[in-house]
């Protein structure tokens, strides 16, 4: 066509418009305008007026309810777009399996097929996961609409729940049982199957660290003899991702800045129902720190004064953690000096030839952004404020990414969550940021039942302990523990409670109550006491604690014997309490106190020889003066930089404190103690851990009186292994009377046992100890010896087992420096503790 172009057909509803546009400019404008008018007319024609709404097919849902979802009023135009919106709204209710919308004249016709109503949700075949836990995992609910699509999703959620407990081959099917009147029972049939195991975890590409060392870094474990108790051999993809991050941090903190994980694959052998996990890594080169510098572009910031905040030093092995700690220290220092928006950026410069990384901390003025709100998600038990208080920033504060990441680390360290993810989103204004915290909670309660056998001294024989611990009590972040211990001759009961954020501040306030009973050794002991304490962090690693302590102690020896009148055979009333103290009737403190003028009768009525309390008049006199009460205040400073408090490999632990007794009670003394321990990896590849410890103490009487003998230090295997409890120090006639001063040192190396799976939790140890206990107010008294600082020393080997019942340890120690009156014990077996 000459001078003309055709506009292709345009669809509006069901009407088709066609227009011809001439080549002339004015004619073209006019013709397009006509096309627009025709299009509008066609759209108007497709939107028919509705005078009524007819609802068909409904039996349970009221027609008025369905009409309300249409949001259409009679007398209004309804277009095809409106009909589509009606369909979407009705389907979104979940009440209908099918909905059809059409128009006939002035009527809008809505045809529905109603979903059935769920009467009950039932589970069959489940024993490993309770009904309540499965109900929490699914979405289908009684009295809700039955949806096959939703039920199918629930089946997958149940399967995932079983995968998380190590039963990947669980089979889940569903049955909809119709019971009439449009109602159904939804029944999930479950075949739980066997536990899926982890047959092996292997590493490829690791040269510097062996498989054994890397397996200790990750949380997943190969199935072993103790997996039944520990349940750490359950494969979970999320756990594998967490372990990947743990490996990265491990390598980055040990100089391998180029480390990367090539792949992490878990293959399921369905015939064995076991996973084979292979992690392929590229370690790269190992770097040390090169030059360290600080540059600032902010006027007024003195870079030279900030070097004391750095944790990185030239020549040391490169550590990403040290760089992060330096960032936090610098950021806090600058914020404290008024530079709230200062931004610290570490810039690394690799020297590939010398394998060093120089770090330049650049301080710039960051963008002015504020925290609009802190949004917390995923916490079903933990209160919001427990999470919020770990952040050094809150709503309205200057946004600082470094402080946000430090809060993330603190949340992970709490031990309340399986995972913690912190992200940001734009706020309502360009300078506003929303901080989003997603957490996945984990069980924080623990029922512990332990047992063992201790040898030597006053606690020999089998022992057992049962305890209940909750580290996040009522979701408030509080710690509570109740425990009881039982031995052949001992009983102990303990209750501890700690509020870690008293009055919203980082002040840990708590109390302890205890009762201990012992009928072992030279005399019986009964102690009841408790304390109220408050601890405050000074820095990330340094903590101060103040406490008030009170205890009552009663000493004696009844040996199952009752004192009776020789004529009436009635129990004699004792003036000094309900424990046998008849030996105190002799007023001569220098003599051994024996029963005079009376008989002692055993439980069968037989007259027996009157026993002595002990062979020490000093101890006997102290027994006669009991019960005692001690009211004291104490303080301590603790520095803890250990990488893991339960199983340290690197870092320092130093604790020093004093106790002043004399705030009422019977005791007046000042007691000072100090202990320091250092840990280091002697060999990374074979996980050989070296440690050295030193400790010392001194107690002196106050108020001009003599020091009570039971306020002395009593030492033995806790200072130098190879000796009994109370095995060293001053004695009278072979009975320990304690000392006023002690000092000791220990050196030890522990290592995995070759040829034994690490999952069994066994480690070997070699050690050497030296120390002394001395100082007595009874020097020169008949029978007293050992009042000097003669050194005792021993060396030996040990076997440590991280058992499901607690850490157990067997030691063989041979004393090669000792005194004739010392009491040795070369073999010992019992619970292990580090501090």
Automatic annotation (TrEMBL):
Domain POTRA: 48-115, 116-193, 196-284, 369-442
Gene Ontology annotations for the cellular component aspect, listed alphabetically: cell outer membrane
Keyword list, A-Z: Cell outer membrane, Membrane, Repeat, Signal, Transmembrane, Transmembrane beta strand
GO BP term, example: protein insertion into membrane
Function: Part of the outer membrane protein assembly complex, which is involved in assembly and insertion of beta-barrel proteins into the outer membrane.
HAMAP family named in the record: OM_assembly_BamA (MF_01430)
Family: Belongs to the BamA family.
Subunit and interaction comment: Part of the Bam complex.
Name this protein carries in UniProt: Outer membrane protein assembly factor BamA
Gene behind the chain: bamA
